[in-house]
């Protein structure tokens, strides 16, 4: 198992946001965490990324517990995040934003190679490498955010609502990109409100409600679950 999250609790001060969450990601899988607004999806993914520290529980990558290591060391274990809302440096160029992602010691040596891979995946970023990131379209900015995470050459890419605020055609592109990244051997944890799209690409999915993982399974089974259909698909 690549990632094993075991019974984690994450709180903001006294307010619990994720409660007793357990999930697994196998190497090379796309795993989706779906659920409504405020369910705890960002909290969960930020805890895995080392941005938030769980009060209890374990987060193991290849068997090593990283739940309590310094946040900036999590990327050394092959985990990178594309945060909600992209968080680019809008006044800096595409290239400068991408170079900020190449922090891992191993990644630094291979920075040129990683950059070439990102430009192969997103040719538009190569063409526009000197453009100011904030002047690009929403979809292109999302590509910069994904490219920046890939510069660290992760084994596990965490993506928080990659389709948020994008037009339907660009959302389709984004999910195609997620598949392409996964086909290159990178496992993906995808947090999404767009349950239909997320379940289309995922190999396995978890449903989170009010801080609890309430069910999980194969996407096909979840799509046939009457409660899921009623609550999320309006069927
Ligand atoms: P969204 O899609 O809106 O981002 P989400 O499923 O990602 O929703 P979280 O952002 O993880 O949900 O929020 C889970 C709970 O934690 C919510 O009740 C939210 O109000 C609360 N919360 C989130 N961030 C903070 C914070 N910085 N301080 C206090 N409470 C927070």
TrEMBL record:
Domain ABC transporter as annotated: residue spans: 3-235
Leader peptide range in chain numbering: none
Organism: Pseudoduganella namucuonensis
GO biological process: one example: L-amino acid transport
Swiss-Prot/TrEMBL keywords: Amino-acid transport, ATP-binding, Cell membrane, Membrane, Nucleotide-binding, Transport
CDD domains, sorted: ABC_TM1139_LivF_branched (cd03224)
Keyword field contains Nucleotide-binding: yes
Alphabetical list of SUPFAM superfamilies matching this protein: P-loop containing nucleoside triphosphate hydrolases
Superkingdom field: Bacteria
MF-aspect GO terms: ATP binding; ATP hydrolysis activity; branched-chain amino acid transmembrane transporter activity
Name listed for the protein in its UniProt record: Amino acid/amide ABC transporter ATP-binding protein 2, HAAT family
SMART domains (UniProt xref): AAA
Family membership: Belongs to the ABC transporter superfamily.
